[in-house]
Amino acid sequence: NKTNDEESADDSVHESMDKIEEQEQTAPIFAIMTNGQGVVRGAMDDISDEISVQLSRGDRAKVDDVVDMWDDLHTWDGMYRLMQSGKNFLPRPRSRPVGFFSFLDEVFDGIATENGLLDMHDDLDLLEDLMHKACHSKNIRRIEKAFKNYRELNIKRLENEESVMMACTVNRANQGKAKMSEIMIEEILNLVVDSDDFKFFIQYANRTLDKHAGRMSSAREFDHSLWGLATRSQWYLWNNWIEASLTKARYAEVQASIYPEREREALYYPDKPAVRDDEADC
What we know:
Blueprint: H1 4-26, H2 31-56, H3 63-85, H4 100-107, H5 111-114, H6 117-137, H7 140-173, H8 177-188, H9 198-211, H10 219-229, H11 232-245, H12 248-258, H13 263-268
Helix pairs in contact: 2-3, 2-7, 2-9, 2-10, 3-6, 3-9, 6-7, 9-11, 10-12
């Protein structure tokens, strides 16, 4: 028979686990997608500022600094756009995962197609090609012109996506959270989670959202969404990446959002990555 102290300890563990499950249900499921808009906006602001700085330097312009920033944005937004569009955005049968736009079309009667969300990706591809050529030329004024055109269209793309995504995700996230989490993982996150660039994807988003804090987007929501979608072993790794990319104050904000009660930390920070039952045989 258990002693009173042992029974009390068991009750405490069960209560902690119940709280964790409750917190998982309140994690902002689609915040990776909605906050991704803020990552792209912030990165474009940074590149515009850097172009202005290098223009002011005249013959001493460090064009490679701008090119490196562009390469990072292009890589990150390429992954983000893949999550939006899926491997194929075609009538069924289509390959899976299908991506966010296809999910919106299926649930909201073709709303993504009706609003031309994918069409704007195609238009953006053309301006990205011009930006690549400008960067290859190492001519800062040519880069300035190419990026101005790219940024103008990309802002229109983001505004169009936001007008559709925000209302749809808020509406849907409140209906069957468990099912929505499954869709977010299997049809959207799985498009990038095994990429060699996934660490970069998480850290670039966090650094950018941290720098541009105070807008509608936040590292706190982005990371809370990741936590709600991760297995425990995934989160053990991802959390290390996040901590390395944020200021101490911002990381503490993220942790406070995910772990309101300190006892959760002991459950999520074992000496080695925890493995869920469904991973044990993998």
